[in-house]
Every structure is written in C-alpha cells, then in structure tokens.
Automatic annotation (TrEMBL):
GO terms for biological process: isoquinoline alkaloid biosynthetic process. SUPFAM superfamilies: Cytochrome P450 (SSF48264). PANTHER family: CYTOCHROME P450 CYP749A22-LIKE, CYTOCHROME P450 FAMILY MEMBER. It comes from Papaver nudicaule (Iceland poppy). GO terms for molecular function: heme binding; iron ion binding; monooxygenase activity; oxidoreductase activity, acting on paired donors, with incorporation or reduction of molecular oxygen. This is Cytochrome P450. GO terms for cellular component: membrane. Signal peptide: none annotated.
Length: 143
C-alpha cells in the first residue's frame, strides 16, 4: 500500500509548491545568485513530473516504481520526491496522514471492492490543495 500512496502523492501532490524567503544573498553552485529578501517557490509538481528524474513513463501511474525505495525510484535524486516537503520544515503530520489513509482504505476494502464510475472526469485542480474538480465517483460492490 505504501507504493500506491507514494505514487498517488507523486502524480497528484496535495501541496503544489513550497515557498521560502531568501534570508541573505546566496550563490547556488555558481549557477544562480539569489538576492536577499526574495521569495522562492519550489514546485513539487515540476520535480515529481520531471522525465529526466522519473523516466519516460513519468506521467503513468506505476506504483511499482517505488518497489525498491525512493532513492531508486528517483534515480538517486530523493529530494525530487517531496510531497511532504524537505529539511527542518518537513511535514510533522506525514505519518499521521499516511496511517489515516491506510486505515480508511482498509476499512473500505474489508467490505467492498470498487470500480471507477463512467461519470468520472479526470481533472485534477487546485483549491488550496489538489483535488478532483468534479468529484470522484466510484461504484461500490459489497463483498
Ligand atoms: C497528505 C497529507 C499532507 C500533505 C501532502 C502535507 C504536506 C506538507 C508540506 C509539503 C509541508 C511543508 C511546508 C513547507 O515546507 O513550507 C507540511 C508542513 C506541515 N504539515 Fe503537513 N501535510 C499533510 C498532512 C498533515 C497533517 C495531517 C498534519 C497535522 C496533523 C500536518 C501538519 C503540518 C505542519 C504542522 C507543518 C509545518 C511543519 C513545520 O513548519 O515545522 N500535515 N505539510
């Protein structure tokens, strides 16, 4: 289930970008100079959809890409998988959120199997977090 959750967070990160204010002028590997007091936006979405990192199948839902961990999945660029941020400000609720998602899924799967409704229209959109624009209609079949 971890692989499925990771792949979902990769393709559809709830938080699309992480913002930081530059405290003092900084030179990044002589490639980029960031002046003090600007805001930098790190796009979770861009990193997680970059074919140079994830491969040509970057846009496909393939949970098995995580079968050997994040380092392998990112071709040694584990910072490119950042649905919960990175560094000292890493999400404090990440374990809680993942455990909650697993419990909810397990409770559903104990009672039902489900299929996607033909009414579903795939249109991820951002309203504070990423969500399905027209809802997510599924058909439940009692076990
Ligand atoms: C799938 C669910 C979640 C996602 C994708 C998510 C994502 C994130 C991200 C990307 C950050 C870093 C923000 C930054 O660096 O500027 C963050 C920080 C944070 N998250 Fe979450 N989060 C989730 C669930 C939760 C939950 C359930 C809680 C609380 C129970 C929570 C509490 C926090 C807090 C308090 C911070 C700030 C940590 C700090 O600044 O030291 N998050 N989250």
């Amino acid at each position: 289930m971890n692989m499925i959750i990771n792949e979902t967070l990769r393709l559809y990160p709830p938080v699309l970008a992480i913002t930081r204010r530059v405290g003092k002028k900084v030179n990044l590997a002589n490639k980029l100079i960031l002046p003090a007091n600007i805001e930098v936006s790190v796009s979770t979405l861009a990193f997680q959809h970059n074919p140079d990192i994830w491969g040509a199948d970057v846009h496909l839902f393939k949970p098995e890409r995580f079968s050997e961990g994040i380092v392998k999945a990112t071709n040694n660029n584990s910072m490119a998988f950042l649905p919960f941020g990175f560094g000292p400000r890493f999400c404090v609720g990440s374990n809680f959120a993942i455990t909650e998602a697993k419990i909810a899924l397990v409770m559903i799967l104990q009672r039902f199997h489900f299929t996607l409704s033909p009414a579903y229209i795939h249109s991820p959109s951002q309203r504070i977090t990423t969500r399905p624009q027209h809802g997510l209609q599924i058909i439940l079949h009692a076990l």
